[in-house]
Specification:
The protein is 45% helix and 16% strand. The protein is α/β, with parallel strands linked by helices. It is flat.
Length: 485
């Protein structure tokens, strides 16, 4: 029967998953898990079957402390019995450890000589070898301690530089995204089982005719839910990688001055000579807990100098790929005719344009610090603010507008359904939604083909979490981890 064959195949895949431990081979790994360089405390960890013996060999007295209890021990060289340090050690017997294997940690003083001495001592013990980047987390994945989305969340947490990034990564590491995909996988599995039963037993009148209708309704609801998850405006990806904002405008309106004001350092050259900026100058900022990658670009005009022409070309290319634009104009030289300001702004922005903030710089040159009464007020404009890069007046209002735009683009990482964070997720989800759509097309024509579409959709969900076809993406996911994690 097709149903029994599917169940046997699924069972075989799970047995293969549970029995495989990539990169382990029964050996024990060790690494410095805290940061390099001088520090108060350095953490050295091991994982594998020789962890217990290694901890007993290096510590005095050799009696192991109770599991998961820190104990003060003298740490010695196994060859010379010389004391290397006095520090805290902790023992994590399998399976109650990060990797699911026997693990140990040595918390020693963070001087480079101490760390080198302990690592050399571990390297001389039989069965131990230095860990590869990400190998602890990879073993945790193979030990069933976390799925691939959790591993990716852990990597993002290590690299998080803003509060919003930390919140999103922690939520993913704790399994919320993986649990969502697992729920969808279970829904698909149940629908596929019911469909297989209908195919196998409907001729015997042992399966109700309503089964097919229920399967179709379930798949339609899941397709809508997955589609909505995909249409999140790339919030998770923007938060993870940073919102790319471009400062654009004509020459000599203060674009480079604005970049320097926002990053509080002379990152770009400022000069009264028009066309000073020729290349893209990029800085990373933290604005209200959200990551911002801000680019200063060449002034947009019909340049005659070949180098400036290339700068303008690069500026327009960067505008096409921007998530947010800070359009800068000279507040003291605005067009006075109705519609003139909107037309000037439109000549700067790509079509279609991403969200934009209009910055009217050089407010210090305005009489009374306000726009003249003759300046048109009825133009359809994006959020607009007056600013003086020279005095800093108006910066708070600009930061308020900028923070609001970043919040709208990235969303609240703690609210609602967890967001997509990787293009890998988007690819497999899109393919899964396509497969569900083809199921609905074929379910009234060929039930066998329709069942294959459900299997394909489930396989794509499994590739996200690592339940199926994980090996081909493991190296990509773990290669950017630091050694010791």
């Amino acid at each position: 029967m097709a149903l029994r064959r599917a169940l046997r195949a699924a069972g075989g895949r799970w047995v293969q998953r549970l029995c495989s431990v990539s990169g382990g081979g029964g050996d024990t790994i060790f690494a410095l898990s805290s940061g390099q360089g001088r520090c108060g405390v350095a953490v050295i960890r091991t994982s594998g079957p020789a962890s217990r013996g290694a901890l007993q060999t290096l510590t005095q007295p050799p009696r192991l402390p109770p599991p998961r209890v820190l104990a003060l021990r003298r740490i010695r060289d196994p060859d010379t019995s010389e004391t290397l340090d006095r520090g805290l050690v902790v023992w994590f017997p399998a399976p109650q450890s990060f990797t699911g294997e026997d693990c140990a940690e040595l918390h020693v003083h963070g001087g480079p000589a101490v760390v080198r001495g302990v690592l050399r001592a571990l390297g001389r013990l039989p069965g131990l070898r230095p860990a590869e980047p990400g190998e602890f987390t990879r073993r945790a994945f193979h030990g069933g301690k976390l799925d691939l989305t959790g591993a990716e969340g852990l990597g993002d947490l290590i690299r998080a530089e803003t509060e919003a990034q930390r919140r999103q990564a922690l939520r993913q590491m704790e399994g919320e995204l993986g649990q969502l995909y697992q729920r969808w996988t279970e829904t698909l599995t149940q629908a596929l089982a019911h469909l297989e039963a209908f195919i196998d037993f409907s001729e015997d009148d042992n399966v109700e005719e309503e089964v097919l209708a229920r399967v179709t309704a379930t798949v339609r609801g899941l397709e809508q839910e997955m589609g909505a998850h995909l249409r999140d405006g790339r919030r998770g990806e923007l938060l993870r990688g940073g919102v790319h904002a471009v400062i654009a405008g004509p020459p000599n309106v203060g674009k480079s001055s604005l970049l320097n004001l926002l990053c509080q350092r002379p990152a770009a050259i400022v000069s009264p000579v028009a066309g000073t900026t020729r290349d893209v100058v990029e800085v990373a900022l933290n604005v209200g807990g959200y990551p911002l990658v801000l680019s200063d670009t060449a002034g947009l005009r019909d340049a005659t100098d070949p180098v400036e022409q290339e700068g303008v070309t690069r500026a327009r290319d960067r505008l096409q790929r921007a998530d947010l634009i800070l359009a800068v104009l000279d507040a003291s030289a605005l067009p006075t005719q109705r519609g003139g300001l909107a037309a000037t702004l439109g000549s700067l922005l790509p079509s279609p344009s991403p969200p934009c903030i209009l910055v009217l710089n050089k407010a210090d040159l305005l009489p009374g610090g306000a726009l003249p009464a003759s300046c048109p007020q009825g133009d359809p404009l994006p959020p607009t603010t007056l600013l003086s890069c020279k005095t800093g007046e108006g910066l708070d209002r600009l930061l308020e507008l900028l923070g609001g735009q970043l919040e709208r683009l990235c969303g609240d990482p703690l609210a609602g359904c967890p967001s997509l964070t990787q293009s890998r997720h988007s690819h497999h989800l899109s393919a899964g939604v396509t497969a569900l759509g083809r199921f609905r097309r074929d379910c009234h024509l060929d039930l066998g083909l329709a069942a294959e579409w459900l299997r394909l959709a489930r396989r794509h969900l499994g590739r996200i979490t690592g339940q199926v076809g994980a090996e081909e993406v493991l190296d990509i996911i773990f290669r950017d981890f630091c050694i010791g994690k």
